[in-house]
Each structure stands twice: as C-alpha cells, then as structure tokens.
Amino acid sequence: MSDVLIIEPFTIGQDMSKPFFTVSAGTGAANLVSDDPRELFICGAPGNATLIDINLGVDTLFDTIYLGNTDAKAGDTWGLSYGTSAAATVTTTQFFTDPIRLASEGLAAARGPALFRFAVPIARRYIRLTLFRPAGVGAVPLQVGNLVVGNALRTTHGREIGEVRTGFDAGVRTRLEDGGLTTVEAPFIEGFKWTFGDLSDAELKTLLGIRKRRKTTRPILVIEDGEAVVTESLHYCTFIELEAYNRLDPRKTRWALTVEDWLGS
Q: pLDDT by residue (tens digit) across 70-103?
C-alpha cells in the first residue's frame, strides 16, 4: 500500500532567538503559526506579492510545506525558494509558481489547502514563500489560516489494507413531541483511521515521540497518500487513538491510528 505520512509541525514563531518568520505585508502574521486555522493571516493588497521568509536557525531537514484554510481561487499562485544563506533563497534553482489550491475529489469548497512536498527531504535554513493574488474588480487580499513546515514520518511498509475516512455531523437533530423535527446546522467533522504494521524500532520511536509531544490537543498533518494528494486526503488534525495489536509473532505489532480533523466542512 502507499504511504500515509505524518508531519509534526516545526515550532516557528516571531522571536528571532528561535526558528522564526517574517512577512513583507499583511496583517495577523502571528495567526500563521497558531494551532487554530480559523485565525487568519490577511496577505497584502492584490496585485502585490506577499513574502513569508522563514529562518529555521540551522540547516534543517524538511520535505513538507502546507498552507491551511486558504480562500485561494483560480489565478492565485504561490512560489517557493530556499537556501543555506538568506541571499540564496532568491537565487535557488528550485522555484515554482503553482496554483495555491489543491485539486478536489468533489465540488470545490470555499476554502482549502495548499501543499508542496519534496520526494526526498532537503536540509536548508532559509525558506521563502511568495503568495500572489492578481488585482482586479472586487479582489480582496488572500487569506491563509495556518502554515506548517515539517519532515514527514515515512514508514518502510506503509499502511495496511483497511484504511477508512471517518466523520460525524456536529449538528443537532431533535425529535419534537408533535412528531416534527428541530435541527441546528453545524460542520461535518472528518477524520482518518488506518493501521501501520511491522514498524522498525526507529519508526516506532519516532511515532511514539510525536504522539507524546502532540497528545490529543496539538495538531499534526496527515497525508493519506503521498503520491496522489488531493484536498480530501489532507488532514490537519489531532490524534484520537494510537492502539497496539499483537500479531501471532510476538516480536511484531500492528499500530492502529485514528485522527480527527480540526476544521469541519
């Protein structure tokens, strides 16, 4: 089976004594690195690029950059450059200008994510993101809910057969005494459930370390299939369960994981 990837977000802030970032324009920059993607960063004016410059402090392995809960539309683009020095972030050979929004399996929602992944992790200190929304009639600044930079846990054997998308309606449906119904609309909360089998010692230590640090209250990013990414296969989420099941061979264990998305739709 294909890989399920787990990304623990790097801790990035606005304190220059630690890994930090700056923006060239816009408001609410701190919201980019808050856990809650409903807290928005508003980019600069349409027709002008907004730069997000990230300094990881030292050359650091990473393979994933994610923007959550954007209001990106057709024509909105983003670019990436990186380097081992600040100057190299604008001269690197790796640069792209792609649509911000990922493709969707169904009808496109009003908001959605952007993702860039390297096939193999690279070690760099400086990263620059360039976000651009064209100017035009009725254009308003681009909105971004959150930024994730991290290095994915990739397992040797990938997930086992039997993964499933889960979900529940957060709304309320109440039967009335007169036979009618009263309802309160609310988002549908999705999640994902899968099993890893036969993890190596190093993989298991990494997984348990992520689980210990993130618990059930801090977000992670889960990608259902690293080779075929669409909006629905990305989960900015929290752990719900991590459960071990022994096989017949006592030296081998299956690990069942369940996550629940932070935002509903």
A: 999 888 999 998 887 776 666 554 555 778 888 8
How far apart CA 260 and CA 240 sit, in angstroms, is 7
The length of the chain is 265
Residue 13 forms beta bridges with which residues? 20
* Bridge partners (DSSP) listed for residue 193: 164, 258
Residue 224 lies in a domain: yes
Q: Is residue 4 part of a domain?
A: no
Strands 188-197 and 253-261, how do they pair?
Answer: antiparallel
Domain of 216?
164-261
Q: Could you tell me if 215 and 126 lie in one domain? A: no
In a domain, 57, yes or no: yes
The CATH number covering residue 54 comes to 2.60.120.260
Residue with tokens 């690029």: 49
Q: Identify which has the larger pLDDT, 200 or 138.
A: 200
| Separation between Cα atoms, residue 1 and residue 6, nearest integer Å | 16
Alpha helices in 128-235 (DSSP H): 201-214
pTM to 2 decimal places: 0.89
